[in-house]
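Acetylornithine aminotransferase structure dump, as promised
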Amino acid sequence: MSVEHAPVQRADFDQLMVPNYAPAAFIPVRGQGSRVWDQSGRELVDFAGGIAVNVLGHCHPALVGALTEQANRLWHVSNVFTNEPALRLAKKLVDATFAERVFFCNSGAEANEAAFKLARRVAHDRFGPEKHEIIAALNSFHGRTLFTVSVAGQPKYSDGFGPKIQGITHVPFNDLDALKAAISDKTCAVVLEPIQGEGGVLPAERAYLEGARALCDAHDALLIFDEVQTGMGRTGELFAHQHFGVTPDILSSAKSLGGGFPIGAMLTTTEVAKHLAVGTHGTTYGGNPLACAVGEAVMDVVNTPEVLQGVKDRGERMSARLRELGQRYGVFSDVRGLGLLIGCVLTDAWKGKAKDILNAAEKEAVMILQASPDVVRFAPSLVIDDADIDEGLARFERALAKLTA
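structure tokens r here:
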């Protein structure tokens, strides 16, 4: 049964919406796999993946099936009650990770908010109120709540909203000496992305994460990994920290966890989790049966050796081709990342022009992203077909050829 809708157009956005976004000039209306169609019927190849969210592309049958089945069963009961999908998804996350306990919420920002509050509460309970300082990396990104923008090391997102949350220090990423100098017995947590996403798709060095783990242990601080962008198979392991062999105390996940349905999760140990006793934290929609049913289907598909190996293979295929294009057209000085989180660093001549490359790509019907004005980012579906990779990159090459002509 289809409903008749009133016609809408892109100009309506400028009349109706708060102007904090500047969306593209077209409106996507339908997606299938790694292809998207706009209102005019134009078909685009999707290398953006809803910003590393659409882990199985658009309208994957396993996700559509899980959502539809749950939609006909139970939508919402709140956390006055528990529900079966939440318990099943929690068990799958615990079985697949270091974690023993799970807290569900609705977004990456909320997962990080919970992680930061938990870290402060743990230190407060164990050592007293003095131990509340959080160390994070410059150019990090952890969400858009006041706490999470204060923790993230990008002033452009946190300035202009009144007094910032106190007790937060920022150090350069991948600089162990700087972290060593900053950490003290007042530190309750060190927060890192195993690969800085918004900061330019910049992977951590193994020795840096190992050093951070050792420093946290020495100072009774918790190590938090923000895996909102890097988690759920994006890098070819279920979570990126598994590449480095370093285990956090708390991990945040979202984006790909729901494959396009809003869900976030904070994972931790029993020992740490016990500090969030009844009433200390909550969320109305967290653990919603619809979201958890979809998340469970995502886990079932993604957390398999075939899919994870496929991510590594596809990532190598894309990266190799992007290196080749970057050299041929003189636009990329480096292609970095892991799996299907790929950042192409612009050469000096093209610095600051990531948006121009995005716009040129869109004209050739391929959707890509930026991660800072100096890095072009690719975060496609983890199960994207080789044919879609090749077609998308052929279109991307046409865009580069026109742009550099």
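The two ends are 50 Å apart (CA to CA).
lmk if u need the other ones
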